[in-house]
Specification:
Layout: E1 8-10, E2 16-18, E3 28-29, E4 36-40, E5 55-57, H1 66-87, E6 93-97, E7 104-108, E8 115-118, E9 129-132, E10 138-145, H2 152-160, E11 164-169, H3 174-177, H4 179-184, E12 188-189, E13 205-215, E14 222-229, E15 235-236, H5 243-251, E16 256-261, E17 266-272, E18 279-280, E19 293-301, H6 303-341, E20 354-359, E21 362-367, E22 376-378
Length: about 375
């Protein structure tokens, strides 16, 4: 919840004064409109029902709003802060969770930046702060948000002109006290450091292989296993490894072999115990993520393509299963029709009755006296 109580003002000497250092009987003025402010100090102790922290207040007939004061003061102070960093040749790293790849990015905000401008006029908009290169090209803009977010047309202009948009949402005047931290951890950044996949066009993610030291679930002996951290708390087993990753796992002592899984009714590559030959299926990988492991950086992988391949494989298996089911139903219908219209056929060897049966190679006629009589006859 936002608290827009004004906690900063100017004294008669134009010094910026925090309400913590303000004294009754002194004059204080609004840093935005210049009007004289009233210092209000609560007589009710903190924690009581009607307590309100000390603050400065405009007169009732004033047209200057606290959100405007906070917005303008923060952007001016932020611009001065960044200008000093540039003048002294310092870098300034910001970090944010990217909404394109879900990675936590870290980036030097002042890379290639030569100057900082407040309310810099662009053809379609006027950002709060603009960071310009040496040739006066706008590289990055900072929008300070108290109530109103950047307009859609402004966001579109930044995107069309490949300008990085940094949005900082403010909650109270306390954000001024933590100005550096608020710039370091912005609310939103329209910039992604992850490369684009050449196949699907989506962003790749950083990938890391874990060489896990664990114990075999069957024999209890020590064994090594390998898995790859995916995105969104998912994990990839050896069946999703490429050739280089399989060799890398083997180099670190992991045994990977093809095994048949009753869970999925299919064979796939899995981590195998060197002592008893038991394997750890993909379904149980999550049980080992808390075990001690050695991390190996794999660079970037496109997990979207991997998920897409899994989905296509599942769809193909589903279609095959549907086709097998349709064929089974069709065979049963044909056999039922055959039984209904077939006359009793005697066994030419023992005189018994030939019955329709289903075997390894399909349906056939077999003698009712089996196993004493093993006569069979193919059904056309």
């Amino acid at each position: 919840m936002k608290d827009l109580s004004i906690t900063y003002a100017q004294d008669v000497d134009n010094n910026l004064i925090s309400v913590k250092n303000a004294c009754k009987g002194q004059q204080y003025f609004c840093i935005e409109c210049g009007e004289e402010l009233m210092l209000k100090v609560s007589k009710i102790p903190p924690g009581q029902k009607y307590y309100r922290r000390s603050h400065f207040s405009h007169r009732k007939d004033s047209n200057c709003h606290p959100e405007t004061v906070l917005h303008n003061q923060f952007k001016r102070m932020a611009a001065v802060f960044l200008e000093r960093k540039i003048e002294t040749g310092q870098s300034f790293d910001i970090s944010w969770e990217c909404d394109k790849c879900d990675e936590i990015h870290r980036y030097n905000l002042l890379t290639g930046v030569a100057s900082v401008k407040v309310e810099y006029r662009l053809p379609d908009c006027q950002p709060d702060i603009a960071l310009l290169t040496a040739d006066n090209t706008v590289k990055t803009v900072i929008e300070v948000v108290v109530k109103h977010k950047p307009e859609d047309y402004a966001v579109k202009y930044y995107k069309d002109n490949e300008i990085i948009l940094i949005q900082i949402d403010l909650q109270s005047f306390d954000d001024i006290d933590h100005l550096e931290e608020r710039i370091q951890h912005p609310t939103k950044v329209t910039f992604c450091l992850s490369p684009v996949c050449e196949i699907c066009g989506k962003r790749k993610n950083t990938a890391r292989m874990r060489i896990v030291d664990t114990y075999c679930w069957k024999c209890g002996n020590k064994m090594k296993m390998a898995l790859i951290d995916g995105y969104a708390y998912s994990y990839l087993g050896p069946t999703e490894f490429n050739e280089n990753e399989l060799r890398l796992a083997a180099k670190h002592g992991v045994i990977i072999k093809e095994r048949y899984s009753q869970t999925v009714e299919d064979s796939y590559l899995a981590n195998v115990c060197n002592s008893c030959n038991a394997f750890i299926g993909d379904f149980y990988l999550h049980e080992y993520v808390e075990s001690p492991y050695t991390p190996i950086d794999l660079g970037y992988k496109c997990f979207h393509c991997i998920d897409g391949a899994k989905y296509r494989k599942a769809e193909e298996e589903h279609e095959k299963e549907q086709k097998r089911e349709e064929e089974r139903i069709a065979r049963e219908i044909k056999i039922r029709e055959l039984r209904e219209r077939s006359e009793i056929k005697p066994c030419p060897e023992c005189g018994g009755i030939l019955e329709i049966r289903n075997g390894r190679y399909g349906y056939f006629y077999g003698c009712c006296n089996y196993p004493q009589c093993t006569y069979t006859e193919k059904i056309d």
